[in-house]
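User: quick one, fold this
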Amino acid sequence: MLFRMNDPFNLLDPDFLQQANAMRVVARRVAPAGRWAEHRSRDRGQGMEFRDYRPYSPGDELKSIDWNVYRRLGRFVVRLFEEMEDLPIYLMPDLSKSMWHDEPPRAVTAMKVAIAFASIGLDQHDRVGVLPFGEDLDSSIRPTSGRGRLSLIADSLSRAGERARDLPTGTDLATALSKLRGLRMREGLLVIISDFFDPQGIEVMTTELKRTRHRPLLVVVGRGEDREPSLQGDIRVRDCETGDMQDVSVTSSVMQEYRKAYDEHFGKLQEFARSRQGNLLFLDHEGDVMKQLSQLFEGGSYVA
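Assistant:
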């Protein structure tokens, strides 16, 4: 049983976590120099599964030489085995001002998605880091491993959520990603959970996304009205990020242009994710979070 610490957002719901732990993240390949876990590494070392041969080089251990090949061919070759290592999972839930606008808040859904992936990663011996962001990146929840660490991650994330709720900030994904890059963490799976509405626009976001070295999974937390708002006539709208007000006459042509801009915005995010062999998932924060996440886990596994 999980030890419940500060959990105002009910991140450690037992039924939710039980569903999460039935899923697995499977890496095609992981970067070398990690810890033992369940994923095949790009490294070749002294693992359990034989993969290949290569010519002997001075400095190689004598025990790695295949003497049967030497007796048959008169050549020194060493055996290479596949290493099983961990997949670093970096979780970036958006806790900026726009994520607290709805009721229930989208930020809570973002935190639940983060906890689901944290639970999956820790359960399969992966190292998990949680990096909430708004105008900046909070790197205080450092990457950790061990099945018993989930409660501590949930507690730290809840505290970050409470701070963000009480003192909401704007969104600056580009700055957060730049700071993430500066941390020089081992290549892994980067899960960004956000509404992806940033005052700087899509081009700034995608430019910085392309500079990351991690494989992306973009989880868009939204609702149907984001694309099809029930607005008409002369209205005054307020930017939930900046608080700026603007008068708008909502006509059919205005709505058509809005939907076009909306589709182009998320089309560019989708294009980026595919270019990196990643994924983009639209998640309705008013729906069943785990049921929607399961769309990623075909046969119970997500291939990163």
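User: anything notable?
Assistant: The chain has two domains: 14-27+87-227+274-303, 36-85.
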